[in-house]
Design brief:
Strand order of the largest sheet: 1-3-2
Order of helices and strands: HEHHHEEHHHHHHEEHHHH
Distance between the termini: 48 Å
Largest sheet: 3 strands, antiparallel
Oligomer: single chain
Radius of gyration: 25 Å
Mean pLDDT: 85
Number of helices: 14
Shape: flat
Helix content: 55-70%
Length: about 325
């Protein structure tokens, strides 16, 4: 099923109104809210599952791990509600998410937080720096300087375009790598990390069953996941690099896997940061000149400039160090 973003917001805002402290709501009672909220029942229950998996609500589950009642909204849930309560913030959050094809709970939280912070930054500039009060000499506006932004949707980690030379995608192979990564085998009933759902949108059990049916993995008599000869070959080809990219970068894994090099990737990120810093420096330098023309206070702006100048030097030194390491190889 598809996770509808509007359902996430509608249900969270509804929970904020109806859930009471130290009082749980049975699933049959809550599912009746679907009609009130004009959300199809299956969509409502599916969204509940995702909110629970995303650690936005606390629930009680039955023996089948299905939600039997909802207890309350978590701290993370309240944070998200605060970021998406404003209609304008929600529209911008949803627009950003849909433009990059993202619907995971974790990604929505990141985008919503950045959207809310941007709104606050804009309001701060307009309120305290009298943005555009003087039409002949308007206050420099930060967003006019940011021609490129950092990737706030870093959780879009796969596009499934990479040709692995097998019948599996890199997304699926990461599940195999996770099973086989420890020196001691994992038990079949071990708890699955939340990032598989929140970040990668993977059904680990379904993918594992596929590997078992294809005789890539098997469960031994001690209920441990073990590789077959084919599984060992696949792991030896993909294991180290795939795990390293998963663990140490926020890149789209399919796009960097083929020629993965952590130092090269880090250098590229740092160069992007330098360009980002230059935009901030240009803004604060122009703001400083504007403030001097208007006899305005400049101390805070000078502090910002000093910070970004120092940050620029730090990043440049880090790039030199990484490039030196690359050249030494």
């Amino acid at each position: 099923m598809k996770l509808e973003l509007d359902n996430v917001r509608t249900i969270l805002l509804d929970f904020e109104k109806i859930l009471e402290y130290n009082k749980s709501f049975k699933i049959d009672k809550l599912s009746a809210r679907s009609e009130y909220l004009n959300i199809p029942k299956n969509d409502y229950l599916y969204t509940l599952d995702k909110l629970f998996e995303g650690n936005l609500i606390n629930c009680v589950t039955d023996n089948n791990s299905s939600i039997s009642s909802v207890l309350n909204v978590t701290y993370k849930g309240h944070e998200l509600i605060g970021d998406i309560r404003n209609d304008s913030n929600w529209i911008n959050t949803k627009k950003t998410a849909e433009s990059v094809g993202i619907t995971s709970i974790q990604s929505i939280r990141v985008i919503a937080k950045n959207t809310a912070e941007k709104t606050l930054d804009d309001a701060f500039v307009k309120r305290f720096f009298n943005y555009n009060l003087d039409e002949d000499d308007p206050t420099p506006f930060l967003n006019d300087y940011l021609t490129s932004t950092k990737n706030t949707a870093a959780d879009a980690r796969f596009n499934d375009n990479y040709d692995t030379g097998t019948s599996y995608t890199l997304r699926e192979l990461l599940v195999l790598v996770w099973w086989l990564r420890p020196k001691k085998s994992r038990e079949f009933n071990v708890k699955i990390p939340e990032y598989f759902v929140n970040i990668y949108s993977e059904d680990v059990h379904k993918i594992t069953d596929k590997f078992i049916n294809d005789e890539v993995l098997f469960i031994n008599d001690d209920n441990l996941i073990k590789p077959t000869v084919v599984g060992i070959i696949i792991y030896e080809k993909f294991g180290e690099r795939l795990w390293e990219i998963h663990s140490k970068s926020s890149a789209v894994i399919d796009e960097v896997f083929d020629n993965w090099n952590l130092n090269s990737y880090t250098i590229q990120l740092l160069k992007d940061s330098i360009n980002f810093n230059k935009q901030y420096l240009k803004y604060y330098n122009d703001l400083l000149l504007w403030q001097k023309r208007h006899d305005d206070k400049t101390a805070l702006t000078q502090l910002h400039i000093a910070y970004y100048v120092a940050e620029q030097k730090r990043i440049e030194n880090e790039i030199k160090s990484l490039e030196s390491q690359l050249n030494s190889h």
